[in-house]
């Protein structure tokens, strides 16, 4: 079987400008091509879509991820192609890949097999430069903070309370914590700082939640970089940084349009991680797609406890989006892993382990239906090693709970292999069953918001934090940020904060290690367990397999 990149390189792509003009009605002068197969769409033209009706929004989420793989992005692409095949004008909306995972462990974000967005090499490697612009805008503010300190510190920033770090779009654990300003007076004042990965940047979150250039600039100005000794916030606008930051992001804010292997248009724009940020593509891209199509299929990062929760409680809440249906993705292999089977043994039939692992899927489905009010269909990505008995057990268990289970073969067959899934999604979306709810109300105190997510969604008994963190949360509450939603940063591998606890652990305690204010993004980040906002590389990074042939062909990229 050819690799993903080999399939993508054999694809017959259409030039993006005539494709977007023909399929979406975008005028030629509103498209800014980046080569032949990717382009940006003018924000001015997107503004003209305001009075059009919205298409139906479908969320694709998944069980807690495992090394066995689930295929959420692949399902998003395959479902979009399948909906187009059955006559529903459909666009997909995905996040852009971060170079950290591309060269590290997780891989890219363009789907797989015969359900991919292309050109996959471009998308996974730099794309249109959006992440570079976000990195530069973030680090410009970092440089202006240190420059302000060097030239007299008129705003009286307390060096011990500067919270604004630097970012890099690469996994580099050595940069997590460091001291800047060494080397004497010409280099500024020494102080502790560090790096996060770009996808954890508040600028990334702002970029994905902003509704216009004006909104982007305002949000950038509201970023709190630190406080004075009396805890008065100092913002980016106090440093007069937000105008230049907005200039760096002006072109990046335009959504990127590409295509699937089946030549269906797709938006790929923005890319916050769901384990350390809010895990959704840009609001601008999603809203534009809803004006341009009958159906929009989008994904939220990692499992439903992370990406889908933040999609609903942050993105939908802030942008006024109302999904019509939800797809929860799983594989038999991944469910057996959650049932305690180790990787080498996943290809053997094991109904007992599958039954144990089903607890993970069932909790995610229950959360989506009961806590968020979204009707669900379960999509099982087919593997050749699956057995009829395993598929039968999955269907009987879920269908007894009123949830349809669809076996999907889009990885091998493209959109044709997901037509049954597409018909199930249309049935749910047109049933009117969706009644969007949130895990907590805006008026709830911050502590109770975090507790609500932990107890309702994660199955925890309670949350805990030391006195210093509790006091910080109370200061944020008293400081006027109590109405903000919360964005919980925790491991993606478990409902708990322990990545080794598979299945559906219950009764655990979620420990809050740190809280961060996102005044521009308008949410509070609660960092839990041992999660890092600057990932490290594995022992054998994906980078060692990626290479260039003498004729300039990229190989080893998945």
Helix content: 25-40%
Radius of gyration: 23 Å
Roughly what fraction of the amino acids lie in strands? 15-25%
Coarse shape: globular
* Spatial separation of the terminal alpha carbons: 13 Å
**Structural class determined from secondary elements:** alpha/beta
What would you note in describing this structure?
The strands form 6 sheets. Strands 1, 2, 3, 4, 5, 6, 14, 15, 16, 17, 18 and 19 form a 12-stranded mixed beta sheet that branches. Strands 20-22-23-21 form a 4-stranded mixed beta sheet. The chain is an alpha/beta fold. β24 and β25 form a beta hairpin. The protein has 19 helices and 25 strands. The mean pLDDT is 96.
Please outline what is shown here.
The chain is of the alpha/beta class.
Helix-strand blueprint:
Blueprint: H1 4-9, H2 16-24, E1 31-33, E2 39-41, H3 43-47, E3 56-62, H4 72-85, E4 90-94, H5 99-103, E5 111-112, E6 115-118, H6 120-124, H7 130-150, E7 157-162, E8 166-168, E9 178-180, E10 191-193, E11 195-197, H8 202-209, H9 213-221, E12 224-228, E13 233-235, H10 242-249, E14 256-260, E15 265-268, H11 283-292, E16 295-299, H12 304-319, E17 325-330, H13 332-338, H14 351-371, E18 376-381, H15 388-399, E19 404-408, H16 410-413, H17 419-429, H18 446-457, E20 462-465, H19 467-481, E21 486-489, E22 509-518, E23 523-528, E24 547-548, E25 554-555
Parallel strand pairs: 3-16, 3-17, 4-15, 4-16, 8-11, 17-18, 18-19, 20-22, 21-23
Antiparallel strand pairs: 1-2, 2-14, 5-6, 6-14, 7-12, 9-10, 12-13, 14-15, 22-23, 24-25
Helix pairs in contact: 4-17, 7-8, 7-10, 9-10, 12-14, 13-14, 14-15
């Amino acid at each position: 079987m050819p690799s993903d990149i080999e399939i993508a390189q054999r694809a017959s792509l259409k030039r993006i400008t005539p494709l977007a003009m023909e399929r979406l009605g975008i005028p030629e002068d509103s498209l800014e091509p980046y080569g032949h197969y990717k382009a940006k769409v003018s924000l001015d033209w997107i503004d003209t879509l305001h009075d059009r009706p919205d298409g139906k929004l479908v969320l694709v989420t998944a069980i807690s991820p495992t090394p066995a793989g689930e295929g959420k992005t692949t399902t998003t692409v395959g479902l979009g192609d399948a909906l187009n095949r059955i006559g529903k004008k459909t666009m997909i909306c995905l996040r852009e890949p971060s170079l950290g995972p591309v060269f590290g462990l997780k891989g890219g974000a363009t789907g797989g097999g015969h359900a991919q967005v292309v050109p996959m090499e471009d998308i996974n490697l730099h794309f249109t430069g959006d992440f570079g612009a976000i990195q530069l805008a973030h680090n410009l503010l970092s440089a202006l903070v240190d420059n302000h300190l060097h030239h007299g510190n008129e705003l009286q920033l307390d060096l011990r309370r500067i919270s604004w770090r630097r970012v890099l779009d690469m996994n580099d654990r050595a940069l997590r914590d460091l001291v800047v300003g060494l080397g004497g007076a010409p280099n500024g004042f020494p102080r502790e700082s560090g790096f996060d990965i770009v996808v954890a940047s508040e600028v990334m979150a702002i970029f994905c939640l902003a509704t216009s250039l004006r909104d982007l600039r305002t949000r950038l100005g509201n970023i709190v970089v630190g406080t004075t000794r009396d805890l008065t916030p100092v913002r980016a606008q106090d440093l007069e940084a937000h105008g230049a930051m907005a200039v760096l992001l002006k072109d990046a804010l335009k959504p990127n349009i590409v295509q699937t292997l089946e030549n269906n248009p797709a938006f790929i724009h923005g890319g916050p991680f769901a384990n350390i940020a809010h895990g959704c593509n840009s609001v601008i891209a999603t809203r534009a797609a809803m004006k341009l199509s009958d159906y929009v299929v989008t994904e939220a990062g990692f499992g439903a406890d992370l990406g889908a929760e933040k999609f609903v409680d942050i993105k939908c809440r802030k942008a006024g989006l109302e999904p019509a249906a939800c797809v929860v993705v799983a594989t038999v292999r991944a469910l057996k892993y959650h049932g305690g089977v180790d990787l080498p043994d996943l290809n053997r039939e094991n109904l007992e382990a599958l039954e144990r692992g089903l607890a993970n899927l069932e909790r995610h489905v229950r959360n989506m239906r009961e806590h968020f009010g979204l009707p669900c269909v379960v999509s099982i990505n087919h593997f050749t090693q699956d057995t009829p008995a395993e598929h039968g057990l999955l269907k009987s268990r879920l269908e007894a709970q009123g949830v349809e289970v669809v076996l999907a073969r889009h990885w091998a067959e493209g959109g044709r292999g997901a037509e049954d899934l597409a018909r199930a999604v249309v049935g749910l979306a047109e049933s009117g069953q969706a009644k969007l709810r949130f895990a907590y109300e805006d008026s709830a105190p911050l502590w109770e918001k975090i507790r609500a997510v932990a107890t309702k969604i994660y199955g925890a008994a309670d949350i805990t934090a030391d006195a210093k963190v509790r006091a910080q949360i109370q200061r944020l509450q008293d400081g006027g940020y109590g109405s903000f939603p919360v964005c919980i940063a925790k491991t993606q591998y478990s409902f708990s904060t322990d990545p080794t606890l598979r299945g559906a652990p219950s009764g655990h305690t979620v420990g809050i290690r740190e809280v961060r204010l996102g005044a521009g993004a308008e949410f509070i980040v609660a960092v839990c367990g041992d999660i890092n906002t600057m990932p490290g590389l594995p022992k054998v990074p994906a980078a060692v397999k990626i290479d260039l042939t003498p004729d300039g062909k990229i190989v080893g990229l998945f």
